Amino acid sequence: MSTWIESINKMRFLIFTAILIIVAVTAWQFPKVIIDTDPENMLAASEPVRISHHELKKDFKLSDLIVVGIVNEKHEKGVWQPDILARVAQLNKAILKIEGVVKVDVMGLSTSDTIEAGGGMLDIHTIMAKAPTTQAQADALKKSVLSNPLLVEKIGSADGQGLAIYVPIKDKMMSYQIATEIEALVADISGDNARESYHIAGLPVAEDTFGHDMFIQMAISAPMAGLVLMIMLWVFFRQGIFVAAPMIIAMVAVIVTMGTMIGMGYSIHIMSSMIPIFLMPIAVVDSVHILSEFYDHYRQTPDTKKVLKRVMAHLFKPMTYTSLTTMIGFGSLAFTPIPPVQIFGVFVALGIFISWLVTMLFIPAFLMSLNEEKLAAKIQKHRPAQQSSLGKALPKIGHWGLGRSKSIITIMLILFGASTYGISQIQINDNPVNWFKDGEKVRIADTVMNHHFAGTYMAFLRFNGEAEVMKEPEVATWIEGLQIELEKQDTVGTTSSYVDLVKRVNWAMHEEDNAWDVVPQSREEIAQYLFLFGMSGNPRDLDHFLDYSQGSSTLWMQLSSGDNQSMQAVENVAEMYMAQHPMPHGLSREWAGLTYINTVWQDKMVGGMLESLLGAFVMVSLLMLVLFRSIVWTLLAMLPLTVTIVFSYGFIGIIGKNYDMPVAVLSALALGLSIDFAIHFIARYRETRQRHANMDAAMQEMFGEPARALAKNALIVSIGFTPLLFAPLIPYVTVGVLLATIMALSWLTTILLLPALIRLFNIGEKTYQGKES
Amino acid sequence: MKKIILSLLLLITPLAWAEDASQIMEEAHLANYYAADDAKAHVSMQIINSDGATREREFTILRRDVEDGGDQWFYVFFKKPSDVRGMSFLVNKHPHADDDRWLFIPAIKMIKRIAASDARSAFVGSDYTYEDISGRHPSSDSAEMMTEESIHERNTWKIKNTPKTPEKDYSYRYTWVDQQTKLILKEVYFDAANTEVRIFTNDEMKEVNGHWVGIAGTMKNIELNHTTKVRFSKVELNLGIPENIFSERSLKSAPRKWVR
Question: Which of A749, A715, A658 is nearest to A288 (CA)?
């Protein structure tokens, strides 16, 4: 170690220059940044469900949808009043002119067709070619729309209070921009005294808005995290240079990691946007350990080199191992089947490696470049660390804990039991709309729209068979049966298929007699009704349900909830029906739709995370075996983090918080981070114990400087994550709260549970017995 | 004096051209939609979507003019797709009012009147509108002569036609009228943003009984990348198709002689 410190001293300018060059080169990559806010990318592009989703969109000319809702809950006539309808017509037409809108497919009163039959005449026409001028006309229009099964709950709400315009968009990445343009149109058209309110909903809007907010989030939280770190470092050291050194490490780690990621062409996804915030507190931890000890020893021996050699000698191993375990925790994410999570894990691991390397080279070089006399003067004038409030409190905590070993262990066991129950109660669920806080526009729109209408969450079932098979009455009847079954579900607002169109034409051909609102029982009849439908109005309307070969069709499902659990319930009902009623004519089925895709990656995530957690657990245990060369110490080292993870997830289960993406990702990370305390504690304890006659004396020393360093470490990491609490987006808040809790918990279990166990079971005492006598 | 003559000339020239353009559109209308007094043709239609998937339609079409440039009767008998064979369609076209349309559905042996308030809706699910098939009356547009151009070595007039009452699917169109036959060789439809939305091309023409008729055409919808190709075969003119062929009776039971 001492030759190493000497060589660093000689090469320190080389070290500074090298760091500067690497930082410059990686920072140069930043302008190449690509942002990716598409949750679909949670799955690899080759994932079967993504491929079938894209084929479905292509084959049936489907686009992602923004839903514009117009609601009037106050007036008894609801939205069916001439002035409101005139504004809706104006908005509907204006939307057609927005760039990126698939205008032929915009569905609304002024753009969609309806089939009616009156006076022996079949009439397929635009629902509202002209806005009504009298209330009587408005009432008539309302009656015709709300009595039409193809329109009610879709274009007009059954309660008469809402209207919807479905705006298909060419690319879902344009949805935020299109939604903003629609808002501007609304402001323009509705003016100040409109009696109706306007809402913009739909999964693409939620997802794209999230991406937009993510930017703001990064711009606020990352600098805030930096500021919080600086304040904490100041509180600990009260020396500008001792604040600057760790901050430099944090900056270097963040810039080099992000620069490398961007330079390699990886896009910034919701996960990787969190890298800077994760990296900063973790990056400074090693330097805080060094500086903390350096600070304490320098007071007695004001000789930089000498103190450094001593500090580095006993910190090198634990620091290296803690960095390694943290890298394993994050690195294990590389084994999850979710690309953005993999990238996140790998690059945070890289960042931790960079910070370890830079800490080992830069901190000694930095300290040795300082003027000894000035440094001595600065540190001397400061009160000793033992007299700080932390320095006073820790020995008390240690003493208190050691005196109650049995109670602590009993309490931990009870909590452990409660937590296992909690874990059994965990609800696996996610919903992109819940990523926004209550009161956000997107959430309000979601609530309002899904209250009045069938639902804004789209899922699709595609049926494939031989060409023209969809015209078989058996097939149409089977699909109708499935639709009836699905619509019994609370969350399924409505379903639509070509069968609905056929039934509607049948009904219209027979003078609107409801007895004819059924599936015709001859192939020719179905074929001719489809032909008739395609002959009149917009042929694209049929293309969305039936392909050109008439061998494939889609069943649209509109769900009123974006919860993955709702989607899964719908899937179960459909699969059950298909098991009980085998598909006729050798049809096959495929699921698609954004709502469905979300459930697929959730499944992968849950399974994948469990694997990565177990993998990381095994690897970290092996590493501990190598470090401590003792099974007992390894078990002891793994205990605090096990307890912490079980407590945290038990807590999540008990309070009923959904196990969603951020929660899942955290498990492996928590493992990598929370083992650090145990490593530092055990390594130091074993070293200290050798220098002391008995356990008590060793423990007493442990609650001095080593405990202070651990406490600083815990405080930095947990407080370092708190800026996430102020994020406008829930997943970031979740990550912040959980990580802070996990860090605090694992620190507490380390300093309470480990001494208690060591004392109770006399762990390691056999080794030292010879020395005592 | 010279100045006055010059400015008069300047005033008159555009007026003269405008008159010419309307005149040409009138002649083109007659040449394209009213050739001879009646007509019969076998039509095959290919509707090709953006992925290249194709829908086929085959039908026989009969036409009888009541008056040149005025009312006309059409009778359409579908032969393919096979499960719609026998569906037939009768249209009484009124240039200045909604057409009358009747449809026969053989599966339920029922004739249904079909409302025809929108002449710009798609004809049998193709990229052609009803109006493209039966002709848009020139009085609906204001015509403006743009220039003379040559298309496939044929001299044409390029005329800008702007609907007098706005249409929902386009703002104006350029029409290229062949100077010799008065057939429309090409038409390009533009939206309000001056973007091309649809293109019609006359792909082949032929002289039948002294009348030039287009026998192959393509209509392409640019936005949807959707194309319909039409080919007329067995075109016959001035057959003396009786008036009573254009009746409900023909819908229910096709006049064999005329739809073969």
Answer: A715
Residue B176, C-beta contacts closer than 8 angstroms, at least 6 positions apart: B149, B151, B156, B157, B158, B159, B184, B185, B186, B187
Say which residue the tokens 């405008």 belong to.
B18
If you write DSSP's letter for every residue of B23-78 in order, what string do you get?
Answer: HHHHHHHHHHH-SSSEEEEEEEEEEE-TT--EEEEEEEEEEEESSTTS-EEEEEEE
Q: Kindly report, residue by residue over B118-164, the tens digit of the pLDDT.
A: 667 788 888 998 888 888 899 999 999 999 999 989 999 999 999 99
Higher pLDDT, A181 or A607: A181
Cα B258 to Cα B45: distance, rounded to the nearest angstrom? 19
- What pLDDT shows up at residue B1? 56
* Six token digits for residue B140: 């609906």
Average pLDDT, stretch A51-61? Answer: 91
* Count of beta carbons in the 10 Å neighbourhood of residue A400: 11
pLDDT digits (tens, 9 = 90+) for B91-105: 999 988 888 889 999
Q: Using the 8-state DSSP alphabet, how is residue B99 labeled? A: P
Secondary structure element (H or E) that encloses residue B142, with its range: strand B141-151
Residues from chain A contacting residue B81 (CB–CB below 8 Å): 527, 531
**Rg of chain B (C-alpha set):** 20
Q: What is the pLDDT of residue A238?
A: 83
ipTM above 0.90, yes or no: no
Q: Which amino acid is at A31?
A: P
From the list B49, B54, B121, the residue facing A537 with the nearest CB is: B121
Which of A123, A468, A471, A524 would best serve as a mutation to test chain B binding (most B beta carbons within 10 A)?
A524
Strands A121-126 and B110-114: parallel
Residue from B145, B178, B166 nearest B20 by CA: B145
Read off the tokens for A25.
Answer: 């080169």
Domains assigned to chain B? 2-259 (2.50.20.10)
Neighbours of B3 (CB within 10 A): 7
Shortest Cα–Cα distance, B190 to chain A (Å)? 14
Cβ-defined contact of A125 to B124 (cutoff 8 Å): no
Pairwise CA distance, residues A178 & A164, whole Å: 16
Tell me if A531 and B117 make a contact (CB, 8 A cut-off). no
Distances from the Cα of B2 to the Cα of B10, B11, B12, B180, angstroms: 12, 14, 15, 37
- DSSP one-letter code for A703: T
Contact criterion met (CB < 8 Å) for A527 and B105: no
